[in-house]
Amino acid sequence: MSQQPTINWRRIAWISSIVMVLFYIGISFFFDYGSDLYNHYMPFAKGCLDCGYVPYYARWFLAPLALLPKSLLAWPIWNIIMFAVLFWLIYTLDVNPLIVASFAVIGQFWLGQIDIYLCIGIYLILKHENPLVNGIGLCFLAIKPQIMALAMLYLLIGQPLPVLAKMLVAPIILALLSFAVFGIDWPVRWLTNTESLPVHMWRYSALDTWRFGLPFIWIPLLFKQRDLRIVLSIAVMALASPFFGIYTYMVLVLFYPKWWTIPLSYAWVLFIPLAGSTAMRFAWILPLAIIIHICYTNWPQSWWAQRQQRLAN
């Protein structure tokens, strides 16, 4: 009896993901969107420091956006670059390529967002043991400190002094250069400008939850593993920062690649009959589920569980 060929689900997932991304890129040539790219990040990269609502030093990271053409081709070109980097990360991290179907990735594509930079930063932190490289990763995360501040802080806490010193080399150089170029008072000017950040439907979820999520920012400290701390820190910030857009959930589905995160990224759709056009405010279901799942499945490795075990012994 001849052996039945097995189905290569991995290959099917890759083919499906590539087809989806080609579809995304294809329609971007015919639609006039990418509002965040055109209205915020491209002007910021070209010198309008108050346009991007990100720290001034982020201009050095976003400098390639200044090279994009002043036409409707900028959005498709940025999508090609963004998805190329995302596919490289998916391949390198060996995660499910179908995460490109998650609502967060679609949000990144549709708005022309830049959270692929955050993904690069986390990759440099999680996949490299060299603390100098980790420090460069911190600089990438600092592009959006309103989202990544907790992950950055908890990454530094508990590090041996020699390692900590090396990790801080790149961030300190970045900070000193920023003061030299933009002035010693640029953080004040930046923070003052962020007060005018318009309320966006993609932030409805965080605006609803941040008061309730703020008391739980200590949760990542329960675990010593670097990957768990970072993912938990980002998931907690999704609930505790009023500036967290649900398109940034792309970071969560990439670095916590459980199959259920993809359909759960659309859980808010179930609330459309109840909330109508504001149903996105229920998107907090995804980061909350990730927090619960990490804590439940890894509880024996938590600081509290190990302490209880030591007391029992």
Task: Report what the structure shows.
This protein is 61% helix and 0% strand. With 313 residues, it is mainly alpha-helical. It has one domain (12-312). The model has no long low-confidence stretch (mean pLDDT 94). The chain crosses the membrane at residues 12-31, 72-91, 98-126, 132-156, 163-184, 204-223, 230-256, 268-296. GO terms for molecular function: hexosyltransferase activity.
Apparent shape? globular
Give the CA-CA distance, first to last residue.
Answer: 58 Å
Order of helices and strands: HHHHHHHHHHHHHHHHHH
Radius of gyration: 20 Å
Strands, count: 0
Summarize this, please?
The chain is an all-alpha fold and 313 residues long. It is 61% helix and 0% strand.
Give the topology, please.
Elements: H1 9-28, H2 35-45, H3 58-61, H4 74-93, H5 103-111, H6 116-126, H7 131-141, H8 145-156, H9 161-167, H10 169-182, H11 186-194, H12 204-213, H13 226-240, H14 249-255, H15 261-264, H16 272-275, H17 285-297, H18 303-312
Helix pairs in contact: 1-4, 4-6, 6-7, 7-9, 7-10, 8-13, 12-13, 13-14, 13-17
Offer a few descriptive terms.
single chain, 313 residues, mainly alpha, 0% strand
